[in-house]
Input
Amino acid sequence: MKCLRWTGIVLYLCIGALPLAWLVLTSIKHHPDVISPTAKFVPAPGHEQGDRTVLFSPTLEGYGRLASAGRRESHSFFHYLVNSVIIGVLSTLCAVTLGTMCAYGFSRFRVAGAQDWLFFILSTRFLPPLAVVVPILLMYRTFGLQNSHVGLVLLYTSFNLSLAVWLMKGFIDDIPKAYEEAALVDGYSRWQAFYRIIVPEAATGIAVTAVFCLISALNEYGFAVTLNSQGATTVPVYFAALQGSIKGIPWPQLAAGTLLFVTPIVVFTVLVRKHLLRGVTFGTIKQ
Amino acid sequence: MRSANLLKYGFVVPAIVLLIAMNIFPLIYTIVLSFTDATLTSSENAWVGVRNYGRVFSGGDYGTALRTTGVFVVLAVGIELLLGFAMAMAMKSDFRGKTPIMTILLVPMMLSPAVMGLYWTIILNGHYGVLNQMLAFVGMSDPPQWLTEHKLASILLIDVWMWTPFMMLIALAGLNSIPRYIYEAAEIDRASRWRVFSRITLPMCAPLLVLAVLLRTTDALKQFDLVMALTGPNDVATQTLSACLFQRMIREQELGLGAAYALVVLVMVIALATVFTRYIGWIQKKQGRTNP
Output
């Protein structure tokens, strides 16, 4: 039984981690080594390219070429990366701010129909993006928001708001009411009590919420591809558009770009791993 | 008193207004559009009654897309649940190196499906893909051509890779919430392993497993990113409902027809989401009772 258990863990770990390791290896290869029919997984500096051994000579060429634009595009990878970062960070700031305020309101005041409102907020998360994307497209066209950063920031803010409200409500519920009551007695206004007492007390929760909002904003694809053909194209849209031109894809460059895009997300994941369960279940499971 | 009232709405209202503007308003607009012949370029739209809905249900591609989505959801969620639960059983007790192993396992689900869809083509490729080379190495003489013949299986494979850890994480929380004394009591009663599993472990884990399945099902029903990155939206073998919707609405620019498609999909998602939100409410209440 014990033996079986360990075989399972090791086997799954190998299979699960292999694609990640392969990504790193691909990013330091020359192009012919990536599409070699013999899998090359042993880096050997100075090795000749394109033969039938498992050795390959590592190179940083893939990373270097990221800065230059491709054959048919006018922008380099970094252009799309900057778009992604701007949209991700701004929408996260907005979602966390609005979400924390809303969660505080529901946590500390008696709002008529609070449960119904909360479930309405939760249900917006399950709406398929494509069901609402056309009216939004028409709306954005009227206001000139199509192909703009502002348009996507607005969308991602509303998309992440349900998660932000539900997570933050859990975190704020955990803060004893006595803290702010003491502050109110001392002559603080509600707003002052909110940002001088609650916000610092809920700092961990805010950070966790921000990481989850940022990750889903960076990874989002459905809205980004329908609303942005140019102007504010994000990294996922840029990558997915390369599909179909398989022959012409510069794989090492692509792997390097993917790695640059993915590394911060992995770091964030590691940072919030203690709260991961809470994050992925909308705060239902507190651990 | 009045100012206190205004204040509390000051906290709550901005978020709700934004959600209504970005969700409810467009939804109503979609309903209106579904009864017109609107296209992306037309300025004057005519009412066409329920003709779009007639086209949705008479056209063959809707049935195919529905079946593709159904097969995908059942297989993906099923495999992820079984594999995730088995992994959770294996990872239940503490051992050295548990934290780093867990962390590595959890990384895939935080990555962008659209980016991973493209990247996996290097692994799945029939000529130089590392997966088939490994299969050949362990003795499979004729490994499957993933990207040309088994496209839906490729998408399933990537989805399982990304989301099994999610099931494991939730199942693990369920397993850890079972109090030790119950197992000790079972040991005193000399209950068999299978009996302990089927009478204690599984039933006590079940509420959280249902939560995980609901969460994954609503997500898998919307499967779009992997399809787009791996095959594009108009491949019969992998055209899920969302991809079909994208093809009609954005590529072929038939907004009216697309809107009708969207609403049919929406009815299913809303039904599921209702079950889901009720369930979350129930679990939260239960949790509140057990740990006050």
The CA atoms of residues 146 and 153 of chain B lie 7 Å apart. Chain B is about 75% helix and 0% strand. Chain B touches chain A through 99 residues (CB under 8 Å). Chain B has one domain: 60-250+261-290.
